[in-house]
Amino acid sequence: MSDNSVRPSWETYFMDIAVLVSRRSTCVRRAVGAVIVKDKRILTTGYNGAPVGLKHCTEIGCIRETMKVPSGERHELCAGLHAEQNAIIQAAFHGVSIRGATLFCTNLPCSICAKMIINAGIKSIYYLSDYADAMSEKYLKEAAIELIKLDAAAGAGENACPSAPEK
């Protein structure tokens, strides 16, 4: 029988999966992974990158990087979709309801993703790192979506998770 003292909490388990999903990212600035969960079951995953069939930023470069656009600004210039957007789109594509679900994401969502999360009916968000978008947290709090920041540096314990890879 295995030693239950090393068994991760559900929160750590799902966040570890979000970190693994982030490794598929094709963004040259930040690798982000998202997992949507309901009743301790994974519904969808997503990572940031170009839409299906389009060239990835790892191939053609990043216009936001070239223009020196700060993180959290001018999202419309980005050729890629965010991890949260891809996870929500996958649910819609496959006809999976995510109403009442929980999002595990390596970063706090941006304001665009926050609005999508609100309308999708997601009720809580676990995340590792903040994101430079002041409107995001405002929208999520106003919509009464629970925000739980997990401790990426704690090492072990209920709120401990590995850090998402930086690029």
Summarize the structure.
This protein is α/β, with parallel strands linked by helices and 167 residues long.
Which features characterize this protein?
single chain, 167 residues, alpha/beta, five-stranded mixed β-sheet, 6 helices, 5 strands, 31% helix, globular
Description:
- It is a single chain.
- The chain is α/β, with parallel strands linked by helices.
- Helix content is 31%, strand content 17%.
- It is built from 6 helices and 5 strands.
- It has a 5-stranded mixed β-sheet, sandwiched between helices.
- Helix 5 packs parallel to helix 6.
- The N and C termini lie far apart (39 Å).
Query: How many strands, which pairing sense, and closed or not: the largest β-sheet?
Result: 5 strands, mixed
Q: What separation lies between the terminal Cα atoms?
A: 39 Å
Work out the helicity level: 25-40%
Structural class of the helices, strands and pairings?
Answer: alpha/beta
Q: Count the E strands.
A: 5
Which helices and strands, and how do they pair?
Blueprint: H1 10-22, E1 33-38, E2 41-47, H2 57-60, H3 63-66, H4 83-93, E3 102-107, H5 111-120, E4 124-129, H6 134-142, E5 146-149
Parallel strand pairs: 3-4, 4-5
Antiparallel strand pairs: 1-2, 1-3
